[in-house]
Design a protein that fits this description.
Blueprint (H helix, E strand, L loop, with lengths): L11 E2 L6 H11 L3 H16 L20 E2 L13 H9 L2 H8 L2 E6 L2 E7 L1 H4 L4 E4 H7 L1 H7 L10 H9 L3 E6 L9 E6 L6 E2 L2 E6 L4 E9 L7 E3 L2 E6 L4 E9 L4 E11 L4 E8 L4 E4 L2 E4 L5 E10 L4 E10 L5 E10 L4 E10 L7 E10 L5 E10 L5 E10 L2 H9 L4 H17 L4 H15 L5
Parallel strand pairs: 3-7, 6-9, 7-10, 8-11, 9-12, 10-13, 11-14, 12-14, 13-15, 14-16, 14-17, 15-18, 16-19, 17-19, 18-20, 19-21, 20-22, 21-23, 22-24
Antiparallel strand pairs: 1-2, 3-4, 5-6
Helix pairs in contact: 1-2, 2-8, 6-7, 9-10
Length: about 450
């Protein structure tokens, strides 16, 4: 039976505003267990009482105009053809069915507040891998969700983690059993399609001992005149000897405010990698964090930031070393053009227990004109004397000799500038699987069209 949505494009929407009534209604629709309903209401109280971060860029938002929850279809599907026509066509244009067939072990799609599609290849499911929406997981794996939900990012962490805990809907739950190493990525694609929407997905990933997985998320939204809000939360638990890579290709429209909290915990000999492409949104505040709890654990954060006209992209990363012999590499590449502002904001904290740890931070910025901005705000806290922390930062403009060389080969100035930018970003782009690297390069080209001439 085909999933139904109304002529309006949705089945149900809460009235605008982040209110107790809306949270209670959401909890009823989700058939929350009592502990989750109670947690939502506690988190809402915290959100309403907490101030906006004093250090952050100005956040131009009126919460009374944000719709907390939109239900797009009656039920989640595992067959593209059963989705409503308007939703299926949206994801068809994004290439999701093709990517699933060719490149993915499993894929999902969230449209507004709920996951509308989720499918895992049969041979992967037989290995014990769980890949579901969080809405399903809280009912199908209640004890596991209750054990891990909010352990790394409690609602009290910040104003937007409180909002997410109160209003979360959709998102992804992944469990990779001991020793299972997936050769193909899992992916969820997020789409916000209505003006004034709020999207508050919750992602929980548990990678058991010796397991490996690569998870990719993509994000898009059409452009509207009024603000929409994305405030997701991601928690990752990488057990002993496991490996987790989390890649994001983010292309929100400029009316979207992206205020997301992401954090991972690496146990002994575990590896967590964040590959982060921040191309969209009018305002972005996202700083993936890794807690290197176990001895010999490693955590890398590689990010691309592109800030054009009317964009303020504030991004970076956090690394907290707890175990001995931990290591981390943080690389940030940012470009600014047409008056855009790019900011790297980072934290490195090496505790007394983290003996012989090694962290390197390298953030480079490229300005394409004289009206754009780049800022760097690093914080380094080292609490022992036998660890090494290195920080390098550079800001520069496109080298004229490179442009001259490319233009001497018959390449236009606009294309030459684009090629220089792509070369500047290539150390991070090449870390993505080929199909996603191609997508990211296309997005960069599209964003720079008519902006670098």
């Amino acid at each position: 039976m085909k999933a139904k949505s109304s002529k309006k494009g949705y089945v149900y929407r809460t009235p605008p505003g982040i209110t107790k009534e809306a949270v209670i209604k959401l909890s009823e629709i989700k058939k929350d267990p009592a502990w989750m309903r109670e947690l939502r209401l506690k988190a809402l109280d915290a959100f309403l009482s907490m101030e906006l971060p004093s250090w952050s860029p100005e956040i131009p938002i009126d919460f009374s105009k944000i719709t907390l929850f939109t239900k797009s279809v009656e039920s989640q599907q595992s067959d593209w053809e059963k989705l409503p026509k308007e939703i299926k066509e949206t994801f068809d244009r994004l290439g999701i069915p093709q990517a699933e067939r060719e490149f993915l072990a499993g894929s999902g799609a969230q449209y507004e507040s709920e996951v509308v599609y989720k499918k895992l290849k049969e041979e992967i499911a037989k290995q014990g891998v769980i890949f579901s929406s969080m809405d399903e997981a809280i009912h199908e794996h209640p004890e596991t969700v209750k054990e891990y939900f909010g352990r790394l990012i409690p609602y009290s962490d910040n104003k937007y983690s409180a909002l997410n805990t109160a209003a979360w809907s959709g998102g992804t739950f992944i469990y990779i059993p001991k020793g299972v190493k997936l050769a193909m990525p899992l992916q969820t694609y997020y789409r916000m399609n209505f003006e004034g929407s709020g999207q508050f997905e919750r992602t929980l990933i548990i990678v058991d001992e010796g397991a490996e997985v690569h998870y990719v998320e993509g994000c898009t939204a059409p452009l509207y005149s009024s603000a929409s809000l994305h405030a997701g939360v991601v928690e990752i638990f990488a057990k002993k000897n496991s490996r987790m890579r989390f890649s994001t290709v983010q292309n929100w429209s400029k009316n979207v405010l992206n205020l997301t909290t992401k954090r991972g915990l690496a146990e002994e000999n575990a590896v967590i990698e964040w590959i982060d492409g921040n191309l969209g949104s009018g305002l972005n505040m996202k700083y993936p964090a890794i807690i290197l709890k176990g001895n010999n654990s490693r955590g890398d954060i590689l990010s691309i930031t592109s800030a054009g006209q009317s964009q303020n992209i504030d991004a970076g990363g956090k690394v907290i070393c707890v175990g001995k012999n931990t290591s981390s590499k943080v690389v940030g590449k940012g470009i600014s053009f047409e008056g855009g502002t790019h900011t790297y904001r980072g934290l490195v904290k090496v505790l007394k227990t983290a003996e012989n740890s090694n962290v390197s931070v390298n953030c480079d910025a490229l300005l394409l004109d004289d009206i754009s901005k780049s800022n760097t705000y690093p914080t380094n806290i080292i609490q022992n004397t036998n660890s090494v922390v290195k920080h390098e930062a550079s800001v520069g403009k496109i080298e004229q000799d490179k442009l001259f060389y490319l233009m001497s080969k018959g390449i236009s100035e606009e294309e030459a500038k684009t090629l220089v930018v792509l070369g500047f970003l290539s150390p991070i782009v090449k870390e993505l699987p080929m199909e996603y690297a191609v997508e990211l390069n296309k997005l960069i080209r599209m964003q720079m069209e008519n902006s670098v001439g």
